[in-house]
Amino acid sequence: MSRQPYVRPMPKSTWYMRNKRYRVYILREISCLLVAGYSGLMIYALSVLATGSPADWQAFVAAQKNPLLVLVHAVALAYFLFYQTFAWFKLAPKAMPLQIGEKRLPGGIVVAGHYVAWIVLSAFIFWLAGVL
Amino acid sequence: MTIAKKSVIWGLFAAGGTLSSFVFPAIIFLFLLISAGMVPGGMQYTELHAFAASWLGKFVLFVVIFLSLWHAAHRLRVVFHDFGVRNDKAAAYAVYLAATIGTMMTAFYLFQIN
Amino acid sequence: MSLRQLELDVMRYDPEQDEAPRFQQYTVPCEEDWAILDALNYVKENIDTTLSYRWSCHMMVCGSCAMMVNGEPSLTCKTFIRDLPDRVRVEPLENFPIERDLVVVLDDVMEKLQRAKPFIIRKDDPPDEDTEYVQSRAALHKFKQYTMCINCMACYAACPQYGLNPSFIGPAALALAHRYNLDSRDQGKSERLDILADHDGVWDCSFVGACSEVCPKHVDPAAAIQQMKIEGAKEWWLQKLSPGGDKS
């Protein structure tokens, strides 16, 4: 009896199309482009704030006014909320298992705590920015 | 037994991911308001400049941007790997270099705001 | 009881004759309460005795019968035909070399499980004969879920990082290491640090989470790995802050 194990090749750049679970994972990971993008936008805004006059800042803000950009930011917000924020919160209980005595607390408590903290923090940011 | 450098990078990634998950929705929403022409009071030049000039403001802005950059960088490296890019070393150098440059630029501009 | 006709597409591979695997179809009259394993047993007993596959307990405790059922890593004794369409594709576990038909080569993961040092490591001297080791129920519950692994290797089949990089130590081995690190009787965390330090250790995991989703015993290896990453990140700072390193 001779052995000849067969190794099935894994398609290195298209494996994630195989099932829904993998596709959702890739969409989740790609949200990092949004993090990079908005970080870059913040750095650019900082550069205008740092090296420009008040008029330059006004011009920068005025240049942002654009219905297309509204759409872009709206889509980005929805994508970010769904694939980053909510996904991150959903996975939080796995990293922080809570146990009181013998009883393991349900993961929902950790998730709920994250949502509460998120709402409070967002409200604080909006208050700082003068939205609230 | 020395822990791999990866544990430091992962630590930054995890901190950046947590922080950005919490604060980026609000930040994106602020950009959305501005693009709709509704600039909130706190985003006017004087207010924002004063915030960025304060030590607390500098600290907050630096930490948010620094951690978010490193989170995005590491995650992008993993995305390259997931998409079949064989040269992990090149991908790593590219993303971490970009994050370093971004971090330095942030510090540079924050330093200039007084 | 009416019999349901199931169409099985089963992957076959004869190492002595075939260049590559192929599919073979079998029509199996199934009782309503059957699992896919029952259908395979029917094939072997009544249609094609050459079909090779592993199975044993038929009650989800031995971990022998894990295969891909319609692309999903599953215990075939736990995958019931009432939850499946009429046409079912049965393949050997993904990410493993095929030995023959539905049998895969498991040497790699067997070695990796050993690397986790899956035994209680003590640094203190053993107590005298009159003293008991005491472990409270609370202490037991901390790690109990990680003891439930039956080594079926469905997690390795689900993990794309293992597929992309076969030297990744993988979910079951890491969950096993975590089981011992969390055990209050164990003092061997530093011995298992290799797994954290090694670049084929926890750091290859990108938290896809597929492992935990397919695990038939709800071990949740993804959670174990994330907790170990946090430990590893903390450990780095501990080692930097105390030059001698935290040896405990």
Task: Please characterize this protein's 3D structure.
The complex is a heterotrimer of chains A (132), B (114) and C (248). Chain A contains 5 helices and 2 strands. In chain A, helix 4 runs antiparallel to helix 5 (107-129). Chain A has helices at 20-30, 32-51, 54-64, 67-95, 107-129, and strands spanning 99-100, 103-104. The model of chain A has no long low-confidence stretch (mean pLDDT 94). Chain B is mostly helical. Chain B contains 4 helices and no strands. In chain B, helix 2 packs across helix 3 (55-82). Chain B starts with a helix and ends with a helix. The model of chain C has no long low-confidence stretch (mean pLDDT 93). Chain C has a 5-stranded mixed beta sheet. Chain C is built from 9 helices and 7 strands. Helices cover 33% and strands 15% of the residues of chain C. The longest helix of chain C has 21 residues, at 221-241. Chain C has 248 residues and is α+β, with helices and mostly antiparallel strands. In chain C, helix 2 (107-115) packs parallel to helix 6 (171-182) and helix 6 (171-182) packs across helix 9. Chain C is elongated, with a radius of gyration of 21 Å. Chain C starts with a strand and ends in a 7-residue tail after the last helix. At the A-B interface, helix 1, helix 2, helix 3, helix 4 and helix 5 of A face helix 1, helix 2, helix 3 and helix 4 of B.
Structural class of chain A: mainly alpha
| Relative helix content of chain A | over 70%
* Rg of Cα set of chain C: 21 Å
What is the global morphology of chain A? flat
Oligomer: heterotrimer
The gross shape of chain C turns out to be elongated
**What's the helix count of chain A?**
5
* Terminal-residue CA separation of chain A: 77 Å
Q: Mean pLDDT across all residues of chain A, rounded?
A: 94
Low-confidence stretches of chain A: none
In total, the number of strands of chain C is 7
CA-CA gap between termini of chain C: 62 Å
Mean pLDDT reading of chain C: 93
Give the total of beta strands of chain A.
2
Which regions of chain C have little confidence, pLDDT < 50, spanning 5+ residues?
none
User: How does the helix and strand content of chain C classify structurally?
Assistant: alpha+beta
Number of helices of chain C: 9
Strand order of the largest sheet of chain A: 1-2
Tell me the major beta sheet of chain C: 5 strands, mixed
Interface with most residues:
A-B, 52 and 57 residues
